[in-house]
Amino acid sequence: MDPGAASPRETWLRLLVIRAGYPRPRTQIPVRSPDGRRQYYLDMGWEDLMLALEYDGEQHRNDPDVYADDIKRSEDIAEVGWTRLRVVKANTSAEVLRRLERAWRSKLLTDREI
């Protein structure tokens, strides 16, 4: 049980990565926009790696206002250094885990170079 889960699919995603052997991700991670005027909450992730997983429901695709906000949000979050993996209903568990493994390795390599 994690009170930070905002949907059953977020719970599915969190449990998927935990069962695959990843450390438990923190949920609802606050992130400020580069100008400090907007606050976002990432569904889940690992702050030390600045790596997030987010589940995008149908409203992200079907609602033009949500879609437009998502574009600005994505740019702001990337600008402050976070890598986000966005997951949708069509993604299989194997696909999500392959993408996470690639991003995880990339973040670990980047951290060692610094």
Relevant terms:
22% strand; 4 helices; four-stranded mixed beta sheet; globular; 4 strands; alpha+beta; 114 residues
Write up this protein.
By secondary structure, the protein is α+β, with helices and mostly antiparallel strands. The protein has a domain at 61-114. Helix content is 46%, strand content 22%. The chain contains four helices and four strands; from the N terminus they run αβββααβα. The chain has helices at 8-19, 59-62, 64-79, 93-113, and strands at 26-32, 39-46, 51-55, 83-87. A four-stranded mixed beta sheet has the order 1-2-3-4, with helices on both faces. Strand 2 (39-46) and strand 3 (51-55) form a beta hairpin. The longest helix is centred in the last third of the chain and has 21 residues, at 93-113. The mean pLDDT is 90.
